[in-house]
Amino acid sequence: MNMLERFKVSFSKIFNKLFKKKGACIGIYGPPNAGKTTLSNRILKDWVGAEETMGSVSHIAHETRHAKRRNAISIENNGHTISLDIVDTPGLATKIDFHDFMEQGMSDSESKKRSKEATEGVIEAVKWLDDLDGVILVMDSTENPYTQVNVTVIGNMEARSLPLLIVANKVDLPDADPSVIKEAFPQHPMVPVSALEGVGMDSFYEALAKQFG
Amino acid sequence: MQGIQLDLISEARISQMASMEKVRYIIDEVRKGKILVLEKGLNPMEEAKLIEMTMSAIQPDVFSGIEMQSYPANADGSFLGKIFKRQSSKRLTVIGPANQLKTLKKDRNLISALVSASK
Lengths: 213, 119
Prior knowledge:
Radius of gyration of chain A: 17 Å
Shape of chain B: globular
CATH architecture of chain A: 3-Layer(aba) Sandwich
Number of helices of chain B: 4
Strand order of the largest sheet of chain B: 1-2-4-3
Pfam family, one (chain B): OapB
Number of domains of chain A: 1
Structural class of chain A: alpha/beta
Low-confidence stretches of chain B: none
InterPro entries (chain B): OapB-like (IPR012017)
CATH class of chain A: Alpha Beta
Organism (chain B): Methanosarcina barkeri str. Wiesmoor
Oligomer: heterodimer
Largest sheet of chain A: 6 strands, mixed
InterPro entries (chain A): GTP-bd, P-loop_NTPase, Small_GTP-bd
Order of helices and strands of chain B: EHHEHEHEEE
Largest sheet of chain B: 4 strands, mixed
Structural class of chain B: alpha+beta
Number of domains of chain B: 1
CATH superfamily of chain A: P-loop containing nucleotide triphosphate hydrolases
Number of strands of chain A: 6
CATH topology of chain A: Rossmann fold
Largest interface: A-B, 34 and 32 residues
Protein name (chain B): DUF2073 domain-containing protein
Order of helices and strands of chain A: HEHEEHHEHEHEH
CATH class of chain B: Alpha Beta
Mean pLDDT of chain A: 89
Helix content of chain B: 25-40%
């Protein structure tokens, strides 16, 4: 990004803050199977209603293959209410091999179909980076955080001067270690949660309001 | 003789290319089976574009994508760097075909990779 583009981004950010732009659009990013859709569903359950979900989840990677947007979610924290548009994006990856789906029990044709849809999903997720006001980056706290996907998403937010909140998910698992994520990216706020069990969600909403409110 | 070509690309060479030219060059070379080590590395926007274009190039049984690793950017701590969010460009990026390059370990200061000849 050149100096003029940086100036435009900074000016746009200041302008939005001055005029209290409503309904910031926040993307939920991360590698496949980090728990992005589980977190999205948890947000909807907590603030919209138990009957609405953002998408289905499964242990097979790339279950989410199209971005889904839910507008105007009102989140209350410490007496203040913020309104956010949330976009649940397909998992970012640098490689997709249909053989991996076959190993999960899918047929050859089904695996190739999912592989094709997954590649289109990643392209869609990358394109969304241009239209967001901030990102929630979901990482699996049982995995090494130094992945290219994490580095790319964080780099993009820093280059665009947009806010970022890191979620260290899956803290309910015995080998979870969210402190490794904090040490890896100390320049950004991080919240340890289990989106599946609902652990740490109060801290998450507090951080959400602080970063994007 | 069967082998793997490893190209170490200087900052001077990569700097001469425009962003899209860089991304196309990398995809073309990696699809030929080469492993590239870029002295300067790519900026985050270029990395995102590379991921996007890699997805367009994936073909079953022919090309399953890339393995790419780079270090997190070191923020410019100077006064002007803080104002303009300028990032250090001195980053190194390793890119290769996903079926030949496996990352064994990566942290803030080390990338350890296994290069395999089997496709």
